[in-house]
Design brief:
Blueprint lengths: L1 H26 L4 E4 L4 E4 L10 E2 L8 E3 L4 E5 L1 H4 L1 E6 L7 H5 L4 H8 L2 E7 L4 E6 L3 E5 L4 E2 L1 E4 L1 E2 L2 E2 L3 E6 L6 E5 L9 H6 L5 E7 L4 E9 L2 E6 L5 E6 L4 E6 L8 E6 L2 E8 L5 E8 L11 E7 L5 E7 L7 E5 L2 E5 L5 E5 L1
Parallel strand pairs: 1-25, 6-10
Antiparallel strand pairs: 2-28, 3-4, 4-5, 5-6, 7-8, 8-9, 9-11, 12-13, 14-15, 15-16, 16-17, 18-19, 19-20, 20-21, 22-23, 23-24, 24-25, 26-27, 27-28
Protein name: Strictosidine synthase conserved region domain-containing protein
GO molecular function, one term: hydrolase activity
Pfam family, one: Str_synth
């Protein structure tokens, strides 16, 4: 009997040691760093900047990018370059929108400012989160976009921002970053700790918008999980990502997924079941020391753990990281080009 007890004890010790070594090995795994310093640049047309969000159609064409003058542009390759794909109802009707004589900051409330973009593959429709005009849609041939919604529960949208489409149902999940401040005054959202943002759902069949969550601090990018059980929402402030559960025992719950090393913008699914999160800016450091590397994006595993980071030259900021065919496409609300990392 004593020999059996000793054998069992030895086996338990061996198992415990193996688990400890495995845990230590996992904890010690370094985070992969991918530099974007030498990324290929696709310059935007003269006079426009800010490819805040990128999308690819069901044929794999694109990218499509919403830019500062209110249009959604399509990249047609080096031969065609950038062409106008879609625009708000006001764009062709108001000469100020096409004249390029007034800074876009002064005209975007009239001409529109497309932010989040995503196609519904089954129909080829492109859904557009326009900061001022609301949730919009345009068909696969482009043209003037249709405004689908401008309010929810009787409260008008002030800053429609990120969106994603459930590819099984066509339902759209999107954010209204504040019911107090429009995009032009987005810094006031942070300065005043505004927490009036909302997570919303557009039911494609009923053509109705419902509020899934209200009272949120600066909700921004949205991504539907690969298994469609939840959506991931990036909060620019306080630098976090949350899950809103759509199905299962947690349906309706809103829970913290990850603390982020910077102020996030768009969130996109990656090819491994996780998410790319673009960072507009790194968190301020209390020690005032200069960061060793400038972070512009991170990739999270499905569990919310950071597994990869993107770095760039000082001064570069990103608003979107879209993965397609093993390549990373980079959009920025501040730059005059779209980046491509091979």
């Amino acid at each position: 009997m004593a020999r059996i007890k000793n054998l069992v004890a030895s086996l338990l010790c061996a198992v415990a040691l193996a688990l400890l070594l495995t845990s230590s090995s996992c904890a010690a795994q370094p985070i992969k760093t991918t530099p974007t310093l030498w990324s290929f640049h696709l310059p935007l047309p003269n006079g426009v900047t800010g490819a805040e969000s990128l999308a690819f159609d069901r044929l794999g064409q694109g990218p499509y990018a919403g830019v500062s003058d209110g249009r959604v542009l399509k990249w047609g390759g080096s031969t065609l370059g950038w062409t106008t794909f879609a625009h708000s109802p006001n764009y062709r009707k108001i000469p100020l929108c096409t004249a390029s004589v007034v800074p876009s900051e002064e005209t975007e409330s009239i001409c529109g400012r497309p932010l989040g973009l995503q196609f519904f593959a089954k129909t080829g429709d492109l859904y557009i989160a326009d900061a001022y005009h609301g949730l919009m849609k345009v068909g696969p041939d482009g043209g003037e976009a249709e405004v689908l919604a401008t309010q929810a529960d009787g409260v008008p949208f002030h800053f429609v921002n990120g969106l994603d489409v459930d590819q099984a149902t066509g339902d759209v999940y999107f954010t209204d970053s504040s019911i107090t401040y429009p995009r032009r005054f987005n810094t006031e959202i942070m300065m005043n700790a505004d927490a009036t943002g909302r997570l919303l759902k557009y039911d494609a069949r009923a053509k109705q918008v419902t509020v899934l969550r209200a009272g949120l601090p600066y909700p921004n990018g949205v991504a539907v999980s690969g298994d469609r059980t939840h959506v991931v929402v990036a909060h620019t402030v306080p630098c976090q990502a949350f899950r809103y559960w759509l199905k299962g025992s947690k349906a309706g719950q809103y829970e913290l997924m990850a603390d982020l090393p910077g102020y996030p913008d768009n969130v996109r699914r990656d090819a491994k079941g996780g998410y790319w999160v673009a960072l507009n800016q790194e968190k301020a450091r209390l020690d005032a020391a200069a960061p060793v590397k400038h972070l512009v994006g991170v990739r999270l595993g499905s569990d919310g753990v950071e597994v990869e980071e993107l770095t760039a030259a000082k001064g570069v900021t990103l608003s979107d990281v879209a993965e397609k065919d093993g390549q990373l496409w980079l959009g920025s609300v501040e730059l005059d080009y779209v980046g491509l990392v091979y």
